[in-house]
Amino acid sequence: MVEAQSNERRVAITGLGLVSALGTDLAGNLASMSRGERAQVQYCCGTPVAAVAASFDPTPYFRVPKSLKLADRKTRFAVAAATMAQADAGIYGRQLDDAAVILGVGGSDMLLDQLSRALAPDPERRSASDVPFFADRVMTGLTPLWLLITLPNMASAHVAIQLGAGGPNNTIMTDCIAGAQAIGEAYDLIRGNGADLAVCGGSDSAVSFLSLEGCRQAGLFDSGGTAGDEEPSEVTSFIPSEGAGILVLEDMPTAVHRGARIYAEIVSYSCRAGGAHNGTANLMLTIEDALRRAGWSEGDVHVTCRAVIPARSGWPAEQAATRPAMPSVRTVLDYSQAAGFAFAASGAIGLVLLLGSLEANETRANIMLNSVGISGQAAALCLRTFPDAEI
Amino acid sequence: MSVTRNDLEERVIEIIGQALDRRSEQIGRHDSLIDDLGAESIDFLDIRFRVERAFKIKIPEDEIWEGSLRFEAPDLVDKTGVSDEGLAWLKGKMPGFAWGRFPKGVSKADLPRLITPETIVDYLARRLEAANT
After folding, report:
1. E-assigned strands of A173-292?
2. Backbone phi, then psi, for B8, in 5-degree steps?
């Protein structure tokens, strides 16, 4: 994240791709939202969960089909959404030799089903304290591809492989802000001449038993959750979900020269750890920093797109989630009510949905995307649709 | 329960198909796993694991691949690669293999390219026979 310099390049968003619990492509998501639909939920660990439809088929998006066996759910979502974004940008099949890939992802479910089976022959739990025993009895029962599937950088690696993107490649794991941060880092990379084109965004699948149980133990659910799959008596505002939102970013003159559709221009980015500040305070500082970098005041923002975990009372982020972070903003988009909250993918999914919606309605807007994580880290970006004609 | 050669071939081709994302009918007994079916090093790991699971055996590293060929023909390889005698033996054993891809002979580095579904079937047949006796 660097301060603006006069010789820096401008950055355009020219492609969008989306897989969410509301639909398996951008058009499907927008149509569902316009009809006021919400993702179907099922109950797991006592909380409603919005999962991507079982009918989602990643196969057409994998140029190298056998790579599918190396891809977990979040990687499959990322590859699918990235391919959609590439096509949407009008560069499908184009050589992307120097293109960057920067993705924000959540943790893996570690192939828990396979891990459980591998642990089954160890009822005495000897593997918990005997590493050689663990290696011999447990690890040998796992597919030798287990590590390759569960490594956190696999999503960005597979997107690069499938798209043929040979430039800088980065994986960001900063929980709920990862998707927004990935977009910001890609913006900085292009701005600083590190790449001409970047595929960026977020992907996550935190609807596994392991993730949900972790959330429950961390007290993220209103109801506290239960061990079963029954519907809780208390209504929760937090619907964990999954999916991927991917964007194509390009150097503005290049995009204009090739006649690309420009959804928006990113005009500033800020990302802060917060230090001694709590999440809410840090989010406000980060928003102020992004506004300052853009040369905007709070009143210049027309739409705020928030990616903030709608957690139960007591969590630092909770205030930001329930109180508009910017009271003067006309519209606050909270897509999580429709598609659920997809953790590391949330900021990117929200932005893709917002930009797609604004494009469909030919609406001009200044946008603030902001996000704060459980750890208090925050990211904010300022964007404007219909960028200035003078490039 | 005895397993016929045909059963073995069918099961091995099914396993290779799963590992390489190919339909069984796309896989020939004498196809090179590397040259014809596009297998990479991690695919060999995957295939070996799937074979172990399917036949409930442990396979020492490399035993199923070059080791299997060497078992059948210990003098297959000389200092530079497959000997003339070894190549003649292989051609008789693998008539459907596209030998034209080795116009200058088979070097040591080429050995993995000789691995076919038939190589795995031969290995399994030998292992299962040994287990039965």
Report:
1. 197-205, 242-251, 264-272
2. -60, -50
Tell whether the torsion through CA atoms of A115, A116, A122 and A127 is positive or negative: positive
B39/chain A closest Cα distance in angstroms? 9
Residues whose CB falls within 8 Å of the CB of residue A67, separated by 6 or more in sequence, listed in order: A158, A161, A162
> How close B81 comes to chain A (CA, Å)?
30
The distance in angstroms from the start CA to the end CA of chain B is: 13
- Distance of alpha carbon A371 from alpha carbon A317, whole angstroms: 10
List beta partners, residue A264. A13
Centre a 10 Å sphere on the Cβ of residue A5 and count the other Cβ atoms it contains: 8
* Bridge partners for A382 per DSSP: A268, A368
Which chain A residues have any C-beta within 8 angstroms of a chain B C-beta? 65-66, 68-70, 143-145, 148
B38 contact A CB<8A: yes
Q: Do A144 and B46 touch (CB under 8 A)?
A: yes
Nearest CA-CA partner of A294 in A259, A275, A330, A270: A270
- Cα-based distances in Å from B38 to A64, A197, A328: 10, 31, 59
C-alpha count within 13 angstroms, C-beta hemisphere, residue A158: 34
**Nearest CB to B49: which of A65, A68, A144?**
A144
CB of A192 closer than 8 Å to CB of A8: yes
Contact A69 B46 (CB under 8 A): yes
Characterize the bridge pairing of strands A47-49 and A11-20: unpaired
CB contact under 8 A, B38 and A145: no
Q: A362: which residues sit within 8 A by CB, 6+ positions away?
A: none
The pair phi, psi for residue A346, each rounded to 5°, is -60, -45
Locate all alpha helices (DSSP H) within A141-217, ordered by sequence. 146-150, 154-163, 178-191, 209-217
Q: How far is A57 from chain B (nearest CA, A)?
A: 15
Six-digit token string for A93:
């099949």
The distance of Cα A123 from the centroid of its chain, to the nearest Å, equals 38
Q: What pTM did the predictor assign?
A: 0.87
| pLDDT tens by residue, chain B, 133 residues | 578 999 999 999 999 999 999 999 999 999 999 999 999 989 999 999 999 999 999 888 777 776 777 777 777 888 888 888 888 888 888 888 999 999 988 998 898 899 999 999 999 999 998 888 8
